[in-house]
Design a protein that fits this description.
The chain folds into two domains: 154 residues, Rossmann fold; 128 residues, 2-Layer Sandwich (Hypothetical Protein Tm841, Chain: A,domain 3), CATH 3.30.1180.10. Strands 10-9-8-13-11-12 form a six-stranded mixed sheet, with helices on both faces. A four-stranded parallel sheet has the order 2-1-6-7, with helices on both faces. A three-stranded antiparallel sheet has the order 4-3-5, covered by helices on one side. The protein is 43% helix and 23% strand. With 291 residues, it is an alpha/beta fold. The N and C termini lie far apart (38 Å). Strand 9 and strand 10 form a beta hairpin. Helix 9 packs across helix 10.
Length: 291
């Protein structure tokens, strides 16, 4: 190909897919107990397990933006040789995309004959992965980068993440809900069901009393919104709750009988920092996001 297809680790795209298709990745950082690490996309399962155990014990990891010079280090070796299509996580969840644009502008001044397109998925984690996988099929089929970028932006609101969390304190810490809402919700065992909205942010959808009812709602909302279930791979993501992931898979197969492949993928530490252990989500392509 006369251009490279690249994305970032905030997609939580499984490492075996990255390796299979040799997809260049920008790896995002997180800091735990004063030490900086980078996402590994599940290469070492013990990393995620230890990370969430430390969060349960009270550790408060943080994430940070990659500065423009780091993006230059990722992008320039590619742009020296060929054009670049970068599939980015939602511009509405971080200011990091501004550093991507700054790096692009600097490199295009240095290499004026090159093309460098950025497609904003308005998604993160598995909903972003779903767009990446379809877009990479087009890449392997030889489609031009402009066509792929246009497809991503025309279909990004069809990529869904229907999410529940186990502990409201992480949403409160990230400013997703107020302290009062978190306190009342914890007292009443209310579990929010969230979604990735049309604004590219995580938005509240509804509430369920108790974990089992929240998981049931994930299955029900998937059934309402999914399209062509037999022709796609649905992704269940979880933050160190594999039993709940399997329970959701069972519910989905009952609720959407003609569903095809289901992939269960761990939520990486960067995303897990903001949603906490126990997070669970059903991710799929379907009707346009209603919220």
């Amino acid at each position: 190909m006369n251009y490279a297809f690249m994305t970032d680790s905030n997609s939580d795209i499984p490492f075996h897919i990255v390796d299979k298709y040799e997809i260049p990745i920008v790896y995002m950082p997180y800091t735990l107990e004063g030490v900086e690490y980078f996402a590994d996309l599940g290469r070492d399962p013990s990393v995620g397990k230890a990370f969430y155990n430390k969060m349960r014990a009270g550790a408060m990891p943080i994430t940070s933006l990659l500065p423009t010079p780091v993006y230059l280090e990722y992008f320039e070796p590619i742009l020296k040789e060929r054009d670049l299509l970068f599939i980015a996580f939602s511009s509405q969840l971080s200011n990091t995309i501004q550093n991507i644009y700054e790096a692009r502008e600097e490199l295009l001044r240095k290499y004026p004959g090159r093309k460098f397109l950025v497609a904003d998925t308005m998604s993160i984690s598995a909903p972003q992965t779903l767009l990446i996988l379809r877009a990479h099929e087009m890449y392997r089929a030889g489609k031009p980068m402009e066509e792929i970028a246009e497809w991503v932006e025309n279909n990004r609101f069809r990529s869904h993440g229907i999410i529940t969390v186990d502990d409201l304190k992480y949403l409160k810490r990230g400013g997703r809900i107020s302290g009062m809402t978190a306190a009342i919700g914890t007292m009443l065992d209310l579990r929010p069901v969230l979604a990735i909205g049309r604004n590219g942010k995580i938005v509240p959808s509804e509430k369920a009393q108790g974990r089992r009812k929240a998981i049931r709602l994930l299955a029900d909302r998937t059934a309402e919104l999914i399209e062509d279930p037999a022709g796609q791979t649905l992704i269940i993501i979880h933050a160190d709750v594999p039993e709940d992931a399997r329970r959701l898979e069972e519910l989905l197969r009952k609720t959407v009988p003609d569903i095809g492949d289901i992939m269960i993928v761990p939520v990486g530490p960067v995303i897990g920092t903001h949603c906490g252990p126990g997070t669970l989500a059903s991710c799929f392509l379907g009707k346009e996001r209603p919220l």
